[in-house]
């Protein structure tokens, strides 16, 4: 069990209903890029809580940024905003936070993992070196995220990624604080999420992009094998941001899963 989180958390609430979907964003960007997905879920009768992780948006930075600390913050948010049924949807870094939170908080009934990995330790040494070099070396050399990220972001998306939702992701990433991103990458690099996946005991949906270079589909298949009650859907030709690159397909799988596994009360 992680220590209790006592800081304030910046979040928005959309829609109403007895099932709440808590949306946990990745290291790049913040909760603002989930606006379309929050609307889709709210229109379908779900209540949606979109957070900004410590250091993002108006949420103050954590004194000791780590996946464990971020999970404690997510647990605090679930406890304060829970309804009868509660779901965690974690993207990228949020997909590391979600399983750990679900294991520590019995109010969580299901998990959705988008653009996910099992943690830094599950990557090959070569991939670890590449991952850190692409993300931290420019910052250590004095660049901001906005100054260096565009080519990397292009490589993380599928070849046909375009449109206003993709633009929204880019805008959120270009506007973020560089020090927040660096803290998050170091938190990711120090965390091994495999034990949390092995212990995950609630229905879990994995949504993987087949051309995601940040969290490759092969790694998400391996994650699905570790989770006792899981299903995985692969979005063909999609990169790291399925909810923006192929929103209709992404939302179709999400709503189908929620409807089958967690039917709403009348």
Structure characterization notes:
This protein has a single domain (10-261), classed as 3-Layer(aba) Sandwich (Rossmann fold). 46% of the residues lie in helices and 16% in strands. The chain is built from eleven helices and seven strands. The protein has helices at 35-43, 67-81, 93-104, 125-140, 145-156, 164-174, 178-189, 194-199, 217-226, 242-245, 247-261, and strands at 10-14, 19-24, 47-52, 85-91, 108-114, 204-209, 230-235. Helix 4 (125-140) runs antiparallel to helix 5 (145-156). The longest helix is centred in the middle third of the chain and has 16 residues, at 125-140. It is globular and about 55 Å long. The termini are far apart.
Helix content: 40-55%
Instruction: Please tell me how large the radius of gyration is.
Output: 17 Å
Major β-sheet annotation? 7 strands, mixed
Cα separation of the termini = 35 Å
| Basic shape | globular
CATH superfamily caption: Alpha/Beta hydrolase fold, catalytic domain
Per CATH, the class reads Alpha Beta
* CATH second-level architecture: 3-Layer(aba) Sandwich
How many β strands by DSSP?
7
Organism: Nocardia globerula
Protein name: Pimeloyl-ACP methyl ester carboxylesterase
InterPro entries: AB_hydrolase_1, AB_hydrolase_fold, Carboxylesterase_BioH, Epox_hydrolase-like
Pfam family, one: Abhydrolase_6
